[in-house]
């Protein structure tokens, strides 16, 4: 369902999510906090890696991983911009996280 469909067909769920995106859990779904907890072993494994790693996943997972590695506060996780069709390269630098974004597709070109 799109957010507009949820707003129309499930207004209570739509409003609950709007009030607290970090803790809101869709029926039979996960909250951002659930995702973050589930990612803990993945994060430990990613931190052990010495070679480049590519992660392809849903936006919620990517937001949570990005927040962790970029040292962003938990409350910011749901609002982190993770554009579609984009590679976000993160490297740990001397002054913190260095980020480069590579757009894979031009959304203005018809497919």
Automatic annotation (TrEMBL):
One of its GO terms (cellular component) is cytosol. Signal peptide: none annotated. The keyword Hydrolase does not apply. GO terms for molecular function: 6-phosphofructo-2-kinase activity; ATP binding; fructose-2,6-bisphosphate 2-phosphatase activity. GO terms for biological process: fructose 2,6-bisphosphate metabolic process. Transmembrane segments: none annotated. InterPro entries: 6Pfruct_kin (IPR003094), His_Pase_superF_clade-1 (IPR013078), His_PPase_superfam (IPR029033). Keywords: Kinase, Transferase. It comes from the Eukaryota. Pfam families: His_Phos_1. PANTHER family: 6-PHOSPHOFRUCTO 2-KINASE_FRUCTOSE 2,6-BISPHOSPHATASE LONG FORM (PTHR10606:SF44), 6-PHOSPHOFRUCTO-2-KINASE/FRUCTOSE-2,6-BISPHOSPHATASE (PTHR10606). This is 6-phosphofructo-2-kinase/fructose-2, 6-bisphosphatase.
